[in-house]
Amino acid sequence: MPSRCKIRLAPFRFRQANLPRLGSLSDMRRPNFIAKHARNAQGLLGRVIAFIMAHETWSQNLRVMDALRIGRSDHIIDVGCGHGRSLSELATRASMGHVVGADPSDLMVEIASQRNRPLIDAARVKVVLATVESLPFADESFDKVLCVHVLYFWKDLDASLREVARVLKPGGRSGLLFRTKADPAAIASFPAEIYRFPELAEVTEALEQAGLDVHAASDRSNEPVLLIAEKRRAQTAEGPQSTDQAETIAVRRAIT
Ligand SMILES: C[S@@+](CC[C@H](N)C(=O)[O-])C[C@H]1O[C@@H](n2cnc3c(N)ncnc32)[C@H](O)[C@@H]1O
């Protein structure tokens, strides 16, 4: 090969060797301009970030789906569905039910709609432009609410969880997955101007206030927290109605 060719290739090889691998992005501190796209993806960079996100968050989405114990006839909403990768998996698990993805980013709604086009055409999946603060659904519409790595961006945690509770049927379950203030890797990797990491107790208290009982909390170190909560049914004079409610009381004592 002529030497001129080697000289032209060298800078390319140098730059390639220094590019972050897709999988290694989670180990880096996100610059603000990238973190902003996680909150509100836009343009070409937003598309790239949506693509990376769909891979980075997948195992955690599956973790929430498993814990929610999706039923075949469930009506499910994924709040902050982003790229919409979860929606087809939810539709497979709820093969006789219905799945909605809600997200306030026009770009994410476009990507999620493209990704799920056949299921949307078959009326099994719907993607809507909406924030958690104002979900365009009637009270008690859903059996399950999924919400993965979204609550950092909520303006008002209490009002948002009240809205989640409103659209859940009594006995319906929410699965919230998020990193907390107690997670040093999260604090180090994401800019505080964009991500607000809550305390675990703050979220469990807000869930309780919204009318949901926390059934299960998984708080392993270096893992995001997973909270499964159930919308309260009317109480009877005899106290807790089910073994689930008895479990809830035990979980609440363990967390607080
Ligand atoms: C980090 S992404 C997570 C996406 C997806 N849940 C996942 O697991 O990959 C956060 C998503 O939350 C959405 N979002 C931001 N603010 C929101 C709000 N107030 N209500 C609902 N979704 C919101 C963003 O548009 C973005 O798609």
Automatic annotation (TrEMBL):
<keyword id="KW-0489">Methyltransferase</keyword>
<dbReference type="InterPro" id="IPR050508">
    <property type="entry name" value="Methyltransf_Superfamily"/>
</dbReference>
<dbReference type="GO" id="GO:0032259">
    <property type="term" value="P:methylation"/>
</dbReference>
<protein>
    <submittedName>
        <fullName>Methyltransferase domain-containing protein</fullName>
    </submittedName>
</protein>
<dbReference type="GO" id="GO:0008757">
    <property type="term" value="F:S-adenosylmethionine-dependent methyltransferase activity"/>
</dbReference>
<dbReference type="InterPro" id="IPR029063">
    <property type="entry name" value="SAM-dependent_MTases_sf"/>
</dbReference>
<keyword id="KW-0808">Transferase</keyword>
<feature type="domain" description="Methyltransferase type 11">
    <location>
        <begin position="77"/>
        <end position="173"/>
    </location>
</feature>
<dbReference type="Pfam" id="PF08241">
    <property type="entry name" value="Methyltransf_11"/>
</dbReference>
<dbReference type="InterPro" id="IPR013216">
    <property type="entry name" value="Methyltransf_11"/>
</dbReference>
